[in-house]
Amino acid sequence: MPSLSKIKLKSFVFALVLSFILTAIIYFLFSSEYFMSLDTFVQLTILFSLVLLVSFVLTHVYLKLFIENKIKEIYKSIIPQKKISSNKLISTNMEDLVNQLKTYSIESQTEIKSMQEKENFRRNFIGNLAHELKTPLFTSQSYLLTLIDGALKDDKINLKYLKIAEKAVERLIFIVKDLDLITKLESENMNLEKSNFNLVSIINNVFEMLEIQAKKKNISLIIDSKLKRVNVNADQEKIHQVLTNLIENSVKYGKQDGTTEISIEDLIEDKLIIRITDNGKGIKKEHFERLFERFYRVERSGNRSTGGSGLGLAIVKHIIDAHNEKIYVESDFGVGSEFSFSLQKSN
Q: CA separation (Å) from 188 to 21, 33, 126, 192, 313?
């Protein structure tokens, strides 16, 4: 019967075997004259039925009262009460119980792994943040203390030391601003203010902003687009931030007399792909997986000549993800890199 649980089926089989044994003993040892006067088949049937009933009841009661209670205790001690539905009885079927425990074990392992990953991420984040803040803090502190100790009166170095301290403070402000921005981007309340705008105009605006920085390395900023107007539908301010971060990184890690080229191409019918390509240092493939993590740097040395907050690519990834678009990386170490992302065309 489908409704018959395995625990009851086992009780029945046990009672059946026990009945045969007890029936044989009772028949041979405790038969009375009246009982013996009945037909043999009737005698056996009556004895077997009575013994079967008693055996089944006793066996099932024993299993119900003792075994099932023990199973419940074990089940409750392993699985938290919040995991057990209040209107759901605990199964006494061993297979069901094993399956439930396996499921709980897998869920627990997944939860533990997730917690460990979050803990590692938190530990790395705090360590990286402390490292990023430590350098400008100690720099500004050391130069200011030198000025306080008497260097302020030395006209040859006082202005120089103040400017170094100011740059260190600017670096701190830059890091804090980027932290504030990425916190807003990660919040669920981030709203994109999408509009139709000319992407070429935004790229030219970023070029103008980074022109002085590029000239220091004699890097040529090129836009490979015959069209003067390419309209897209996105959050203009945030896409401006994406282009600024990517082009600025290209200039930072670009080589002397190099190039940074922006190209705009059709991806599919309603999508564009924007490529930022340079012939700079390039990135080793071992760094690709963690490239968009907060504070992750390809340069692992303590002396980082390129500066920055270490949050630029993380901010880029969050903005592109918020637009439900994709970002891609291709790079050959010593040859150059290409960062590309997709955008929605405007209607």
A: 71, 89, 22, 11, 20
